[in-house]
């Protein structure tokens, strides 16, 4: 696939797309020394272990081992082939590629169906939007939009549209374009008839909200019924483009505002986001009327530190808030809660109190998680009743016992003491008891997953000398093409680690068939993702530059001698198991002499 784009073009594309900027579109990166760090997008973590080097134009995760260059990052995170990543980066940098290359790519790509699905969604969004704005068929949608007080700016910004009350509006358009209607059903725009052959439009007589992926591509829709149609809200089904639990409404457009404030407002539905945008809130996203998932929470944590939960003020909203707090804290988010009064949703609050009051409420009425829990514990209790009062105090004290910060515990215990006329000393004594219970429960949980001592020791053991030597030489070869030729003329054997030998073989092949090879493109050409990760890891390892002659000889010697040492160890093991003591003694003497010879040979080299 790589040879379909010239090496010179690939080098130009890579130079024009700084890896920090590209990865920064997916991950919130923080400057750290000479590089940048953030939460790894390839595995769940709370503490950043993902490193990006602008100098080397590489990324590497010290947690899961993911690594590579700007091409492999897009391949990993988007599931693209190399040429798809290259074309995306070319478009991003406004670099023109030959038309023949593009055509070949589309014909040979395994993702041709996905491309058609994306084009269909783009066309559907444009169609719905134009129907709403400019046609007689769109009149019911315009009337409903006016009833919901949606402004022209909101309709335009969110590309809101109207699905006409026809069974085959989109079906006819897709048929005229000669697109597979079966494929259109697979991507959630059509539905197959049950009683007869053929297809019909999934969305009809609904106000339509396009859902975009992280790059701004429409991949799904949310549809609000107009009138008494059921269900009231209809979302696109799960498709190859759209997984509800991994997507957030408005994330692409809100990302800039989120990062400016290092904060996101999380709502329950699209209407809430649209209403909030009209008041000037540009850092809001929403789920799709379902519980927040770990994947969605991780998406938020990659972009911001603080999440403000602003769910409906009814009982269902409170329950959703409780669940979301646990998920968000689990991925390391700082959580604040904005409770809306009188059971209102955000749209209703704005209608009753106005835009300015809503913005002030979002800024001034934020609760910490502990404040919310204290508020939540009061619901359903009569604190004038002694039993309810004691139960409330104990529940709050148990919540506080889970906080590691002594200052936090003291702050809220003083609130309890002041409100109920209690002695702070008594509360501290009770808190000590609850803290012991929490610690015991934690130890019990840790013990159930404890690693055996021998395993813990092996996990922190440094690599053997020959492994370090192989890693160092490969690192130098990845940096300098001349080192590849130098190693090939000096190394008489081969690398002892299979993955190292495979990478070395690929390196030799690459430089042999590519005169003046650009080593920056080597990782991009590796189709084996594990080897690409290994290469990226070796490139970011610290090495003395340049490699001295003495160090080079030492590396070669350690690699070549390891098989001999391994053979000695195997023979020593055989001695232990030997039944003939005389033969064992002779073999031991021979091994001792061979071991001494190898040591002298290494010392003299």
From TrEMBL:
It is an enzyme of class 2 (transferase). The keyword Transcription applies. One of its GO terms (biological process) is DNA replication, synthesis of primer. CDD domains: TOPRIM_DnaG_primases. Residues 262-343 form the Toprim domain. Its EC number is 2.7.7.101. It catalyses: ssDNA + n NTP = ssDNA/pppN(pN)n-1 hybrid + (n-1) diphosphate. Its cofactor is Zn(2+). Pfam families: DnaB, DnaB_bind, DNAG_N, Toprim_2, Zn_ribbon_DnaG. Transmembrane segments: none annotated. One of its GO terms (molecular function) is DNA binding. A zinc finger (CHC2-type) spans 40-64. InterPro entries: DNA_heli_DnaB-like_N_sf, DNA_helicase_DnaB-like_N, DNA_helicase_N/primase_C, DNA_primase_core_N_sf, DNA_primase_DnaB-bd, DNA_primase_DnaG, DNA_primase_Znf_CHC2, DnaG_bac. GO terms for cellular component: cytoplasm; DNA-directed RNA polymerase complex; primosome complex. Binds 1 zinc ion per monomer. Keywords: DNA replication, DNA-binding, DNA-directed RNA polymerase, Magnesium, Metal-binding, Nucleotidyltransferase, Primosome, Transcription, Transferase, Zinc, Zinc-finger. RNA polymerase that catalyzes the synthesis of short RNA molecules used as primers for DNA polymerase during DNA replication. Belongs to the DnaG primase family. Contains an N-terminal zinc-binding domain, a central core domain that contains the primase activity, and a C-terminal DnaB-binding domain. Monomer. Interacts with DnaB. This is DNA primase.
């Amino acid at each position: 696939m790589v040879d379909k784009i010239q090496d010179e073009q690939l080098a130009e594309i890579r130079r024009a797309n700084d890896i920090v900027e590209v990865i920064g579109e997916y991950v919130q990166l923080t400057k750290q020394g000479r590089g940048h760090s953030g939460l790894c997008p390839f595995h769940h973590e709370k503490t950043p272990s993902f490193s990006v080097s602008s100098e080397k134009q590489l990324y590497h995760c010290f947690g899961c081992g993911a690594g590579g260059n700007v091409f492999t990052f897009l391949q990993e995170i988007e599931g693209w082939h190399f040429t798809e990543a290259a074309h995306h980066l070319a478009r991003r940098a406004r670099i023109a590629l030959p038309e023949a290359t593009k055509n070949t790519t589309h014909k040979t790509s395994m993702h041709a169906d996905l491309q058609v699905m994306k084009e269909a969604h783009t066309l559907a969004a444009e169609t719905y939007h134009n129907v709403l704005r400019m046609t007689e068929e769109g009149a019911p949608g315009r009337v409903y939009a006016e009833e919901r007080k949606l402004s022209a700016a909101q309709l335009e910004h969110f590309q809101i549209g109207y699905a006409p009350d026809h069974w085959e509006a989109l079906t006819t358009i897709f048929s005229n374009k000669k697109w597979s209607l079966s494929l259109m059903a697979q991507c959630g725009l059509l539905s197959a008839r049950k009683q007869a052959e053929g297809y019909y439009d999934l969305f009809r007589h609904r106000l339509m909200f396009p859902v975009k992926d992280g790059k701004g591509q429409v991949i799904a829709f949310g549809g609000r019924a107009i009138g008494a149609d059921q269900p009231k809200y209809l979302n696109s089904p799960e498709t190859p483009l759209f997984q509800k639990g991994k997507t957030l409404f408005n994330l692409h457009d809100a990302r800039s505002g989120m990062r400016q404030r290092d904060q996101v407002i999380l709502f329950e539905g699209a209407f809430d986001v649209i209403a909030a945008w009209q008041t000037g809130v540009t850092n809001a996203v929403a789920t799709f009327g379902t519980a927040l998932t770990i994947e969605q929470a991780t998406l938020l944590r990659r972009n911001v530190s603080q999440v403000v939960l602003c769910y409906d003020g009814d009982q269902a909203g409170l329950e959703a808030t409780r669940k979301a707090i646990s998920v968000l804290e689990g991925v390391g988010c700082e959580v604040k809660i904005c409770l809306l009064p009188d059971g209102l949703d955000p749209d209703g609050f704005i209608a009753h109190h106005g835009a300015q009051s809503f913005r002030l409420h979002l800024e001034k009425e934020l609760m910490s998680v502990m404040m919310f829990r204290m508020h939540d514990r009061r619901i359903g209790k009569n604190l004038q009743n002694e039993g309810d009062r004691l139960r409330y105090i104990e529940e709050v004290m148990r919540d506080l016992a889970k906080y590691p910060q002594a200052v936090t515990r003291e702050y809220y215990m003083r609130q309890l003491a002041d409100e109920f006329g209690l002695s702070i000393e008594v509360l501290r004594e009770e808190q000590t008891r609850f803290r012991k219970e929490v610690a015991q429960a934690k130890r019990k949980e840790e013990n159930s997953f404890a690693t055996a001592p021998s395993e813990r020791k092996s996990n922190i053991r440094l690599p053997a000398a020959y492994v370090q030597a192989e890693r160092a030489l490969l690192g130098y070869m990845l940096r300098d093409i001349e080192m590849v030729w130098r190693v090939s003329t000096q190394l008489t054997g081969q690398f002892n680690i299979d993955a190292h030998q495979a990478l070395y073989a690929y390196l030799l092949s690459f430089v042999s068939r590519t005169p003046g090879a650009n080593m920056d493109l080597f990782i991009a050409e590796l189709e084996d993702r594990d080897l690409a990760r290994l290469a990226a890891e070796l490139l970011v390892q610290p090495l003395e530059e340049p490699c001295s002659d003495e160090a080079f000889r030492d590396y070669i010697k350690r690699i070549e001698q390891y098989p001999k040492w391994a053979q000695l160890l195997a023979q020593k093991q055989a001695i232990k198991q030997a039944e003939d003591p005389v033969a064992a003694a002779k073999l031991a003497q021979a091994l001792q002499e061979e071991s001494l010879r190898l040591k002298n040979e290494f010392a003299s080299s």
